[in-house]
Specification:
The complex is a heterodimer of chains A (253) and B (344).
Chain A: E1 15-19, H1 24-35, E2 39-44, H2 47-58, E3 63-67, H3 74-85, E4 90-93, H4 111-139, E5 142-147, H5 160-179, E6 185-191, H6 198-203, H7 221-228, E7 233-237, H8 238-244
Parallel strand pairs in A: 1-2, 1-4, 2-3, 4-5, 5-6, 6-7
Helix pairs in contact in A: 3-4, 4-5
Chain B: H1 7-10, E1 36-41, E2 46-51, H2 55-58, E3 64-68, E4 76-80, E5 86-94, E6 99-104, E7 114-116, E8 122-128, E9 136-141, H3 146-153, H4 196-205, E10 208-215, E11 230-234, H5 236-247, E12 252-255, H6 257-265, E13 276-280, E14 295-298, H7 306-314, H8 317-329, E15 340-343
Parallel strand pairs in B: 1-15, 3-10, 3-12, 12-14
Antiparallel strand pairs in B: 1-2, 4-5, 5-6, 6-9, 7-8, 8-9, 10-11, 11-13, 14-15
Helix pairs in contact in B: 7-8
The chains are: A alpha/beta (253), B alpha+beta (344).
């Protein structure tokens, strides 16, 4: 029996787990889901930033905040989510590690640094997915969204570590989707595009990024995909999708 | 002194037909461990709606799950009355080599009645069991040893809400251990959703497991009915596992009412579980309370079922009322193939 995909899924009450949610894209993605009525599980390393974000969204929806490093404590994050809400409907693997700044050429990349990048950007997203998939399978629905980058496709000098990790994450995403065929679980790889974020400033220190849009320009693509995209796998350029669909970005308070 | 409302007043409802599980979850396209799970925190009255497969997240490393490893027998036989009518005879409990507690279904019979069973077997009704209106003590004459006869000629005990006939394998828990002499007349159903995959996930999580044995009789009692005895065994290994869990501050979580009945029957004067085996007709009520377990996995029970008294002994009647209101509102499924509740 092949489960039929919903034409449009309501976000109301869905449980969305966002990693790296205390700032940048993660915070705006969480805001976009909250705006659609989803319940949030927010994970981030920084306790203070996370508390501020959680307090802000708590006015809109139910929020569970977990201070955790997803590369070390994936179980604790999922445990908190399931104990609070009983399920995870949407996993947004947003937390990313850029690596050393300024970004070294591969020739002189310390492998300990590369290991950290791969742990956060490749292993943690897969580990989190492994923990939430059994429940998603049982409910015949669920979405895993992995945040990727054009650096995972193109070879930019200096972006080798981060780029390799995103290339690996995209491959995991496609393979997961192949393995989850006809389970009702969908996998998306979302490239948010160039944004004015803390991470981007670390990647290109000294550059003036003020001409770039903020992460709120890409965030509406995430709930839109969950609600409307019924393909089992899709790679998306978020900002292009937002424009195509005429999605309005939530204005920052 | 204000009188507290009784459990029956607090948990009283009419089960809507669409909340009856008419078939195993497999017939609904679900695996055993994909039924729903209502997790209810008996101290905070907080309810979480989850999926049975996510059970490991609600337990902590060091907790102990105690299961009932009794085999489910196909304990229903087709019997022919002296006037030629066919009825179903449910074999409930083996009392001695030839004497069984039995339940002739949907027929009024008198002492002395003889029922012809498959392959030349016979059952003679001796006397009503402990004044019951539906259970009898009968003498069985069978052409081969009782359990092999039952496994060959019987079919699982079913009730009217069940659609279709399912083989006895459908009813077996993955850890059921067949014995030579006894088994259960009805599935110890709380353990049914525990798939091998889920048992592995629980082990990885650091949750321990132990087995006790209680061979169930037919039909859960209604609260006005007199109790009848069931055979149980709590082994020294199970006692060690319970004590070790307690020593490390782990919770003892019973998988099903039968496990609570077995463990409570093994509690000694000192309030501790000790090795025990034999017959138990213990009825657990809120007044009596429970000492051996900190939580339980169980299905959803009908109003006035004596099982509700046991659940109310662990949680409070008020907690049970809230949980059952939520379960009814959220469309959880009742009966042995339905959804599950984890009371912690």
């Amino acid at each position: 029996m092949t489960p039929s995909m919903p034409q449009e899924v309501s976000m109301q009450g869905q449980v969305v787990l966002v990693t790296g949610a205390s700032r940048g894209l993660g915070r705006e993605v969480a805001r976009a889901f909250a705006h659609e009525g989803a319940r949030l599980v927010l994970a981030a390393r920084g306790a203070e930033g996370l508390r501020a974000v959680a307090d802000e969204f708590a006015a809109t929806t139910e929020v569970e905040a977990v201070v955790a490093d997803v590369s070390q404590e994936a179980e604790r994050v999922v445990e908190a989510a399931i104990r609070r809400f009983g399920r995870v409907d949407v996993l947004v693997n947003n937390a990313s590690e850029l690596g050393p700044s300024p970004m070294p050429a591969l020739e002189e990349y310390r492998w300990q640094d590369l290991e950290r990048v791969l742990r956060v950007n490749v292993l943690a997203p897969l580990h989190l997915a492994q923990l939430v998939l059994p429940g998603m399978r049982a409910r015949r629905q669920g979405v895993v969204v992995n945040v990727t980058s054009d650096a995972g496709v193109e070879a930019y000098a200096g972006w080798g570590g981060y780029g390799a990790s995103k290339a690996a994450l995209e491959h995991l995403s496609r393979t997961l989707a192949a393995e989850l065929e006809s389970t009702g679980i969908r996998v998306f790889a979302v490239d948010p595009g160039d944004m004015d974020t803390d991470m981007h400033r670390l990647a290109e220190p000294g550059e003036d990024l003020s001409h770039l849009p903020g992460p709120e320009a890409a965030a509406p693509a995430f709930p839109w995909l969950v609600a409307h995209e019924d393909a089992p796998y899709r790679r998306v350029l978020a900002q292009a999708l937002v424009q195509e669909q005429g999605l309005t970005a939530e204005v920052r308070a | 002194m204000t009188s507290t409302p009784t459990l029956e007043a607090l948990v009283d409802f009419t089960l809507p037909p669409d909340l009856e599980a008419h078939a195993p979850p497999e017939a609904r396209g679900l695996a055993r461990d994909e039924v729903r799970l209502l997790v209810s925190d008996r101290r905070g009255n907080r309810m979480v709606h989850s999926t049975f497969r996510d059970l490991p997240w609600f337990l902590d490393p060091g907790d102990l799950l105690v299961v009932n490893d009794s085999e489910t027998l196909p304990a229903a036989l087709t019997a022919r009355l002296e006037d030629g009518r066919e009825v179903a005879l449910h074999l409930s409990t083996r009392l001695s080599r030839q004497r069984w507690i039995v339940e002739p279904r949907k027929v009024a019979l008198a002492a002395g009645a003889v029922l012809a069973l498959p392959a030349g077997g016979r059952a003679r009704l001796l006397h009503p069991h402990r004044g019951s209106s539906r259970l009898w003590v009968a003498r069985l004459s069978l052409p081969r040893p009782a359990l092999s006869y039952i496994r060959r000629h019987g079919r699982p005990v079913t009730y009217d809400y069940l659609h279709g006939a399912w083989p006895v394998e459908t009813y077996q828990t993955v850890y059921a251990r067949p014995r030579r002499d006894r088994g259960s007349a009805e599935m110890p159903s709380a353990g049914r959703p525990l798939s091998l995959r889920l048992l592995t996930a629980l082990e990885v999580r650091g949750v321990e497991a132990a087995a006790v044995t209680l061979h169930t009789g037919v039909a859960s009692l209604e609260s006005h009915e007199p109790p009848y005895e069931e055979w149980f065994e709590v082994s020294p290994e199970a006692v060690d596992a319970v004590r070790a869990a307690r020593a490390r501050d782990g919770r003892v979580v019973a998988v099903g009412t039968t496990v609570v009945r077995a463990l409570e029957s093994a509690v000694g004067e000192d309030g501790e579980v000790r090795p025990a085996r034999g017959w138990t007709d213990l009825i657990i009520t809120p007044e009596r309370g429970v000492r051996s377990v900190d939580g339980m996995l169980t299905g959803f029970h009908e109003p006035r079922a004596s099982h509700l008294q046991m659940l109310a002994a662990l949680a409070s009647p008020q907690h049970l009322r809230i949980a059952y209101e939520r379960a009814l509102a959220e469309g959880y499924l009742w009966h042995e193939f339905g959804d599950m509740q984890l009371i912690l």
